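It would be a great kindness if you could assist me with a short task in structural biology. The matter concerns a single protein, recorded as an amino acid sequence and a row of backbone structure tokens. Could you please explain, in whatever detail you think fit, how the structure tokens follow from the sequence? Thank you for your consideration; the sequence and its tokens are set out here:
___
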Amino acid sequence: MIPYLGEAEAEAAAQAVLSGWVAQGPRVARFEEAFAARVGAREGVAVSSCTTALHLALVACGIGPGDEVVVPSFSFIATANAVRYVGAAPVFADVDVVTGNLTPETVEPVLTARTRAVMLVHQGGMPADVDAMRALCSRHGLRLVEDAACAAGSTYRGKPVGAGAQIAAWSFHPRKLLTTGEGGMITLDDADQARRLKRLREHGMDLSAAARHASTGPVFESYLEVGYNYRMTDIQAAVGLVQLDKLDEMIVRRRELATRYHELLADLPGVSPVRDPEYGRSNFQSFWVLLDSEDFPGGRDDALRRLAAAGVSARRGIMAAHLEPAYRDVEHVPLPVTERLTRDSLILPLFHTLTAAQQEHIVDVLRKPAG
């Protein structure tokens, strides 16, 4: 993944620096408003990363010690980590083999009397079936937190992923389409909850930096609860506003490249590329392929070695948290699809400036016999 950055972002960052306001300020407020509108939410709360967004989302949902939160193991480890940050227990559920996402069929068997929430990841930008999961959570009285780290610009049933979410967390890491270097966002429709989240990201303070700066008299702030330092800077937000204007262009380009990969890989045995589900459209933040060991000799690891030797920077498939040392002590149901996806999939290069010749080279390397 190569970020799609240019002179406009550099100029916006420079203007923020020259303004003298480089910490959280007016550009952050504009970015919050613009991003929330883009994903169909009423409120946006900018933070320092998607991990801190997930943490605050769970705090806002009242999740704490003794509670359980259902999460996919098939996700970056931050998903499960956020649950532990609030003292709750992550409960791993399996995922759908096509989308890599949780489904009601994988979640319901792991629900217990202690379950308080489900964290639904839109994996690699692939939209999850939100309506089905909302219905399940409604039946069981559970909160639904959407981990939309990779999903800016993806759609679900014709609407942006994030529209109507109880609470959703987003990432602006450089591996995402829209980047601010580091940074994240929480989106939701509840104004009161958004105000609380804005306090929590700023040490629990009842007055923002902007409000203190605007005051013409002495300011005596209060700290209403234990909070955190999870703020975004105005420099990051300045870059984010430019990136947001380019998001539609980036999605069109990535979908063109994904279509080209599908064409090039169509006759290659044992290779199943990720595809849109019938209910939505992906931004193709990641383009992964699942390999069948019987029809694709050598398997995933051999393919990665051959690609690296040919100068192609491909990556292993999405990790499985339950296989990492940090989570090996967590009891879980069998996760056969998760383990197959993480063992037999790889992520092919996909970035805005990827050329047709580069794509053909990548696929030609995959066509070569193992050995």
